[in-house]
Design goal:
The complex is a heterodimer of chains A (599) and B (219). Chain A is 7% helix and 34% strand. Chain A is mainly beta and 599 residues long. Among the domains of chain A are: 40 residues, no CATH class; 183 residues, Immunoglobulin-like; 122 residues, Immunoglobulin-like (Sandwich). With 219 residues, chain B is an alpha/beta fold. Chain B is 38% helix and 17% strand. In chain B, strand 6 and strand 7 form a beta hairpin. Classes of the chains: A mainly beta (599), B alpha/beta (219).
């Protein structure tokens, strides 16, 4: 609850506005007032009200994560949603890619490609990381960010199963970081079934002035398993929505906050990218990636501010979609596939659709994918929760709304600090609006299939616990330090080795009632076997995932098959501030494994 | 329509930043667009102002030093918080940092420095800290620092060695065990647990070191 001072301030400000002639209804429409009568940016949502929190603890003199800054005012919904550029291949790369690292030509890779011959790249891309200028709002000055090909989020890859690609990643980031960020980088393809040396392993970062060739085979898990030889892997392991982001050990939060993030889509014969074929999912301009982020902007300079000395989690009070603060999105009255990614750094969200003129209305829609993996079939929902790095593909049918209607994409999950959400879901209209849909475009053809009538995407792979290696991971905090089984991230320590071709059952434990963690495990998708001893209660969790939400005092068991490639991978908390403060264990897939139960 | 002045709206907004702000009319949008003159602040100066108040501290050798001018500016540093009567974590971290110090060799006291700030300035006088340092065989380039209680507490908060749980934050035994490492002019700041392997702490420090060991900035 807001404290007395907050309430007094809210009342004072509200009276001032009402005295100025605004009705409560108008205030609400302006986003200035909640239905309960408090100002929208009350403590707990604005993350960081400097005036309230100053001196109450935390990096930089406060507890909210912004380091003593509350962003200057910005208007919402004055700029359109930015359509992300689609990345185009090049005819060839010079010098030509090599299996061994081309150190002489300036490649920062140190390990040979393990699957280059088996899956020779058919398309080539070159992408450059550099300092860029970007505007996030007409009410803030031009920002200096780091981006890919001059943009943040970077361009979207449109990749296809069965079409291996090679991405030459060029690092032109400056030595002068403008206050935060480390210009040695490692770009992780999040969710990718990628050989270790191309995965973006946190310790495989490379220097500015160099390049790094990432080989993405774009193969289904099980591709080397003879039982799936006919289909080049297990079709049930198909992925759709991936993203890429910097993963530099100790500096991931700074570098992602600075802009090093983008989307990567994978298509196949069912999820075709053409709404007249396959699963007939909305395609083309109706298939829209939305990358969410929250940031703080310095009230004096107007520039994005990163609290260097925060170790709990950083919450922003400005909400960005595809690099713009609170854009509007003009839509036609038809179905859209929206691909949602929570890029953090630390905030959990739960998105609802809200009609600001009718707060009691609820609007169901369909979630079709969890963490970028199509569900067994669409699930009708009224909200979607996303921890950091979780993704959800949803289908919203805007023909169900009135022509001209405006609908907010509203995060109603209350969160006051980096520890995680409070557990309260705020009433409609009291949360934070990330984006406004305006149903104003003319009617157009819709050849996509109504998700209510889709009965099947992919079955879930079987879970076989008969011969699993069992391991337990405790995610803890001791003396303010983040730990996995009492240990810390260390590039020189391999915590355990999984035998290639084996199955494992991992038990992830969060014994804390104070902290929540979105845990990400690289390389293989897992399935949740149990959440606190019972099958996962949410239909959307009966799915394939790569991030597990570890809520307070939870124990979650997850099942894996480890196949196809070998090498080093991490498991870590994806609250990137926790991650950068050592909440990560590095492990290996090898020809022989161990059975260490508490690595 | 509302008759709200820009001054009023900004005063209001300054007191409570607003998440979403929809305007009814285009003309209003233009009228309310900030005519703000954004300040240009050097990021290095901004970091100094935000995190490194230039308070006067006393070393274990009774030397008066200023936090920014004498300890942080132009240096590569390791920072932690401890207190001499701490029986659990501090002695282990101190021993670990002694290993780090040995690994750093002659760069210690030249361009790399370790600072241990006391959480217990009332008890941890320079003499007490001197005894503590001697007991742990601490070498040159590593200062144990004490000062006025309120300033030490401000430093702890500024440098982010706090817990959001007020009960834990009050409990010195559960104090934050991280070691912050950084290079002040390069604006590179990271952190690692005080009980990380000493070799890895040193490796982490090399990540923010001068390029090729030269104390100069790349263009």
């Amino acid at each position: 609850m807001p404290n007395k001072k907050d309430i007094d301030n809210a009342r004072k400000n509200r009276l001032e506005l009402i005295a100025a002639g605004l009705s409560r209804r108008e205030l609400f429409k302006m986003g200035l007032l909640t239905s309960a009568g408090y100002l929208v940016a009350k403590k707990g949502l604005s993350s960081r009200a400097w005036a309230y929190d100053h001196g109450k603890g935390g990096g930089g003199g406060d507890g909210g994560g912004g380091g003593g800054a509350a962003s200057p005012p910005t208007r919402g919904f004055v700029e359109p949603l930015r359509t992300l550029t689609v990345k185009q291949p090049v005819a060839s790369l010079n010098p030509a890619p090599t299996i061994q690292p081309n150190t002489a030509a300036g490649e920062g890779r140190t390990i040979a490609h393990q699957a280059f011959t088996k899956f020779p790249p058919q398309k080539f891309y070159q992408i450059t990381q550099s300092q860029i200028s970007a505007t996030v709002s007409p009410d803030l000055p031009t920002q200096t960010f780091w981006g890919f090909d001059g943009e943040t989020p970077g361009p979207v890859y449109h990749a296809k199963y069965g079409e291996p690609i090679l991405v030459r990643n060029v690092n032109n980031l400056p030595a002068n970081n403008g206050g935060f960020g480390n210009n040695t980088v490692s770009t992780h393809l999040h969710n990718g079934h990628t050989p270790s040396e191309s995965d973006g392993f946190p310790c495989f970062f490379f220097n500015s002035g160099h390049f790094y060739d990432h080989h993405y085979p774009n193969v289904l898990a099980g591709v080397t398993d003879p039982q799936f030889a006919a289909t080049n892997g297990d079709i049930r392991e198909s992925m759709s929505t991936l993203f890429y982001h910097d993963h530099r050990i100790d500096f991931t939060a700074q570098n992602v906050y600075k802009g090093l993030v983008g989307q990567y889509l994978l298509f196949n014969q069912f999820d075709t990218g053409d709404e007249t074929t396959g699963f007939r999912l909305p395609s083309g301009q109706f298939d829209v990636p939305m990358m969410f982020a929250d940031k703080v902007f310095d009230p004096n300079t107007g520039l994005a501010f990163f609290d260097l000395f925060n170790t709990d989690g950083i919450l922003g009070d400005r909400f960005l979609v595809n690099g713009k603060i609170q854009p509007f999105f003009q839509v036609a009255p038809r179905r859209y596939r929206l691909r949602w990614t929570n890029t953090g750094p630390s905030r959990w969200v739960q998105f609802f659709l809200t009609d600001p003129n009718n707060l009691s209305a609820t609007f169901p829609f369909f979630q079709i994918a969890n963490d970028g993996n199509l569900l067994p079939k669409p699930v009708q929902v009224t909200s979607v929760e996303l921890g950091v790095a979780e993704r959800a593909d949803v289908i919203i049918d805007f023909s169900k709304f009135r022509p001209g209607q405006s609908i907010m994409l509203e995060n109603r999950l209350e969160q006051q600090d980096g520890r995680g959400p409070t557990g309260n879901v705020l009433a409609a209209g009291q949360g934070n609006n990330y984006l406004r849909f305006d149903v104003v475009l003319p009617a157009v053809a819709d050849n996509s299939q109504d998700p209510a009538t889709i009965t099947k995407f992919y079955d879930l792979p079987t879970i076989d616990l008969s011969n699993v290696v069992r391991r337990t991971f405790q995610f803890e905090r001791g003396n303010g330090q983040w730990q996995v089984n009492g240990q810390f991230a260390d590039c020189n320590t391999n915590r355990f080795t999984v035998k290639q071709g084996s199955t494992e059952l991992w038990t992830l434990v969060n014994s804390s009632g104070g902290w929540m963690h979105p845990i990400h495990i690289h390389f293989e998708e897992h399935q949740i076997v149990s959440r606190n001893g019972a099958p996962p209660p949410l239909a959307v969790e009966r799915s394939r995932k790569d991030v597990v939400e570890l809520h307070h005092n939870e124990t979650v068991q997850i099942f894996f098959r480890f196949r196809d490639f070998t090498g080093r991978y991490p498991l870590h908390c994806h609250n990137v501030v926790h991650e950068d403060h050592a909440m990560m264990a590095l492990w290996t897939i090898g020809q022989t494994g161990d059975t260490n139960p508490n690595p | 329509m509302p008759n709200i002045t820009r001054r009023k709206s900004l005063a209001f907004l300054a007191s409570a930043p607003v998440a979403g702000w929809v305007l009814g009319k285009e003309s209003q949008a233009a009228a309310l667009a900030p005519e703000h003159q954004w300040k240009q602040v050097d990021p290095r100066e901004q970091i100094r102002q935000r995190y490194f108040p230039n308070v006067v501290l006393t070393t274990q050798d009774h030397k008066k030093v200023r936090l920014y001018d004498d300890l942080i500016k132009d240096k590569v540093v390791l920072i932690n918080f401890m207190y001499s009567s701490c029986s659990q974590l501090c002695p282990r971290v101190t021993q670990n940092l002694v290993k780090v110090q040995k690994l750093l060799g002659d760069r210690m006291d030249r361009d790399i420095f370790i600072y241990s700030f006391t959480l217990d300035p009332k008890h941890d006088t320079p003499k007490v800290l001197k005894d503590y340092a001697s007991m742990h065989h601490v070498g040159p380039g590593w200062s144990f620092l004490t000062g006025a209680a309120d300033e030490m507490e401000m430093l702890r908060r500024r440098l982010g060695f706090t817990d959001p749980d007020p009960e834990l934050d009050k409990d010195k035994e559960s104090h934050i065990g991280n070691v912050r490492y950084g290079n002040e002019p390069r604006q590179l700041w990271g952190a690692c647990p005080g009980m990380s392997h000493a070799e890895f702490i040193v490796e982490s420090l090399t990540w923010v070191d001068w390029p090729k060991g030269q104390r100069a900035l790349e263009p």
